[in-house]
Amino acid sequence: MIFSTLVLTAVILSLNAHAQSAVPLLWASYIDVASNYSRSYGESTVVSRFTPGTPITVTRLQLQAAFGSSINSHKCNPLPKISVTDGTFNYSIAIPPSTNSVHADSGPIAVSFPENADLVLKALPGETGCNPGSINVTVQYTVSSEFKRHSPSGTQH
Fold first, then answer.
1. How many domains does the chain have?
2. Tell me, what DSSP letter sits at residue 34?
3. Is residue 131 part of a domain?
4. Are 84 and 61 in contact (CB under 8 A)?
5. Dihedrals φ, ψ of 22, to 5°?
6. How far is CA 77 from CA 94, 98, 126, in A?
């Protein structure tokens, strides 16, 4: 009886660990006005911070903004971006130009970060005066059994 209980417990824990690694998890942040996170042109500051206890793979980066990147109805150049980084590797998406609601999606990606990485979500400024706002950012990720650096098919630095 004790042996079957131990086996059952091991199976349940194994399935739980597998489910966590297969199911996308979510890291979400909100940016009121992008310029609040930039002290001056070219500088960026942290919007949110996350330290995973296990290796993770970022599988998608998305944003939805109430108003996009524009100055007096003109497209900003360069466009501001949202970036997720561990200080060594970064992946970013541009905030699209518009005076209306906009969204951006990295599409499927595979960007791996090691256990205890100091991950930060940053608002990278664009042209001076370009202030997109009311931005919801979601970072989808999965738990990895081991750290493997993947090269994504999108914007990377």
1. 1
2. G
3. yes
4. yes
5. -95, -25
6. 11, 12, 7
CA dihedral 155, 39, 42, 83 (to 10 degrees): -10
pLDDT for 128: 87
Q: How far apart are CA 93 and CA 124, in angstroms?
A: 10
Alpha-carbon distance 112 to 89, whole Å?
Answer: 9
Rounded to the nearest 5 degrees, what angle is found at the Cα of 151, between the Cα atoms of 58 and 132?
Answer: 55
| Residue 17, in any domain of the structure | no
152: amino acid identity, one letter: P
Say yes or no to pLDDT of 41 above 70: no
**Residue carrying the six token digits 């003109």:** 74
Please tell me the distance from the alpha carbon of residue 32 to that of residue 76, in angstroms, as a whole number: 18
Residues 76 and 97 sit within 8 Å (Cβ to Cβ): yes
Q: What tokens does 79 get?
A: 């466009």
Q: How far does CA 83 lie from the centroid of its chain? A: 7
| pTM to 2 decimal places | 0.77
The most distant pair of C-alpha atoms in the chain lies apart, rounded to whole Å, by 74
Give the CATH number for residue 60: 2.60.120.340
